[in-house]
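Take just one protein record:
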Amino acid sequence: MILPVAPDAPLVVRLAAGAALVLHIGGGTAGIVSGAVAMVAPKGGRTHRIAGTLFVVAMLTMSGVAAIVSPMMPQEQWTNTTAAIFTFYLVITSWVAVRRGQNEIGRFEPTAALVAAGLALEGLAFAIHQLAGGQPPGIAIYVFAGLAALAAGGDIATIRAGGVAGPARVARHLWRMSLAMGVATMSFFVGQQKFLPEPVRGTLLVAIPPLLVVAGLVYWMVKLRWPRRRRMRPA
């Protein structure tokens, strides 16, 4: 995401554009690496906590820069802006889920629910607009609207229940963080193939990293839902 700047632009403007590029690429790269470590590390351990913290900082930086810079591009990329806002929302709500105490909510949760609902409505409105113009939208917009609606529903359920606890709290944290990780890997390996080796571009190999994230999410959700029963020791 290179923000075009005129050669005669003030030094401050050129430095800001360069900093935005570095923060976006660096944040995305750090997010993918730290997220991969957090997914495979034992949950609750020191490695998981450190990697998870780095992932949160990196992803908030990457998505925050993308949300601000995308509308400034020569061709306004509101799709990227919306995706960046959703990624920012996923990361921050996932982080808050584990920072809150058991069965505890605050003013943040209603605000988050409004953001998710607004994103879902925006996706639906865009799809209707495309259909009205005779241009059927791609499946991606329906997936996005559905995920945003699912997230909003989870926020509303959390508010009505007065918070979450136990496995539900971990699940809320897990699926949101994993989905944000999936967005990051998809954006890089599929959307930025020009940075990959030429033999890999356009092949199914670019889909492997996002699929690994999905597989990791399914594994941990199943393990959370059906924990291994402790074997009874003989008397």
The helical segments are 11-40, 46-69, 78-99, 108-132, 139-161, 167-189, 208-225. The two ends are 64 Å apart (CA to CA). The mean pLDDT is 84. Residues 13 and 221 are 46 Å apart (CA to CA).
